[in-house]
Write a structure and sequence with these properties.
It is built from 8 helices and 11 strands. The chain is an alpha/beta fold. Strand 3, helix 3 and strand 4 (90-95) form a beta-alpha-beta unit. It folds into 2 domains: 11-134 and 239-266, D-Maltodextrin-Binding Protein, domain 2 (3-Layer(aba) Sandwich), CATH 3.40.190; 137-237, Periplasmic binding protein-like II (D-Maltodextrin-Binding Protein, domain 2), CATH 3.40.190. The protein has helices at residues 2-12, 28-57, 68-85, 98-106, 176-183, 197-205, 215-218, 251-266, and strands at residues 17-20, 23-26, 61-66, 90-95, 112-118, 129-144, 163-166, 189-193, 211-214, 225-228, 236-244. Helix 2 (28-57) packs antiparallel against helix 8.
Length: 267
Amino acid sequence: MSQQLKALEQEAGLALVERGGRQVRLTAAGRILAGHAEEMIARLLAAEEHVRAVGRLGHGRLRLATFRSAGESLLVEAITYFRGHYPAISISVVQGEPEQYMTALRRHELDLALNYDYDGLDPQLDEGLVSEQICAEPILVAVPAGHLPADEPLRLADLAGENWIASTPANAVHRFTERACAQAGFTPRIIMHTDDYHIAQELVARGMGVTFLPEMTARDHHRGVEVHRLTDVDLRRRIHATYRVGGDRVAVVAAIRDVLLAVGARD
């Protein structure tokens, strides 16, 4: 245990306990970490209880929808955990953008869908749906490799003279680039639109411009792109699990919801 604790302290860069003689007390940072650990354990225990409830239902199905970046990380991890506990449930996943598949959720063609909202934009949800936040992630900026000094802090205001690549008008977050840049005091010169972050990164790598990237999409970024955190603004994307009102009374929906919450808390 002491080795694990030392490893945690090294990773966090902070002392987690105060050692004095035979007594060991948590520091402020240690108490925060312990609180998060208790929350994660509670969520995983709740998920296991719901999975046991699913077992009492016998065979069933779970119809999910996700956007790409969450599907490749959060959802895959949640499904892996879920299937390990109850493999008899049939799972299907639809990939797209929330504005494409939320109608299917309302029409009872899906059981649960992942959606998102960005800082500065109003979330799109109707009274027939419930949305629970899974996690929040920082939004970074992708620039062509070698375009900026890699070891210097970067402000969004420093990119006022750059060309920008933004989402299309069909996307719910189309206005994000403009509103985020407005916080830094400038209007972005948007020269291109795409809703595919992989295409956006390819364009950035070819020197076409710069673009915002949520952290999930930047974990395995294009080798011709450098990703920077911004020092003058704190921009975030929040990811939600959304289901119909009363959907959490269905054991299989509640179970995957709780697993997603646990995975999101860990990330």
